[in-house]
Write a structure and sequence with these properties.
This protein has helices at 3-10, 14-22, 24-34, 47-54, 76-82, 96-105, 121-127, 149-160, 175-183, and strands spanning 64-68, 88-93, 111-115, 133-138, 161-171, 186-192, 199-205. With 207 residues, it is α/β, with parallel strands linked by helices.
Length: 207
Amino acid sequence: MNGNELAEVRRPGVRERLARALGPAGVFLRGFIENPRMVGSIIATSDSTIDKVLAPVEWNACKLFVEYGPGVGTFCRPVLDRLPRDGELVVIDTNPLFIEYLRKTIGDSRFHAVLGSAEDVEAIVAALGHSHADYVLSGLPFSTLPEGVGPAIAAATHRVLRSGGGFLTYQFTTAARDYTARHFARVDTGFAWFNVPPCLLAWGWKD
């Protein structure tokens, strides 16, 4: 291989250069372009929506918080800011681009970024030494997931949560709320108007 060929191999592609130039937004955009069915929106969730989604959480009783589909960490830092010192945050994503980015940019010992499927949350939680999760947050686009995946995630989430725990979702359709209602007897709902686009919030409580 000559010098020109080696340079061509090492030269980053357009998407890689764009991601570097735009920072987190570029990484997120690249993730959306590569797998749009697994990314809910290319626009970051607003601060007011984050606050509203997390408002019902009893942080002093939270030892393990799980998030599905963290993207570039829009919720990660707000959760870590609220989490007790002995609490842990586990994020699960099928996109290695996002997991690699989060591992490089979040240096908190309470943080664990796992490459995998939310369907396997029980095994992931057990592998980290926990018997259950206190809260699970999801921004996954349930309406566009492959057939059967949404119901499987909702069922696994109900099983992994402790009694009194909650499943928190924010969506642009009613799919996540509907799947949640199949397993959680009590589901509270709300709406985040100051988000682009506005989204439906749901909190399923495991009584």
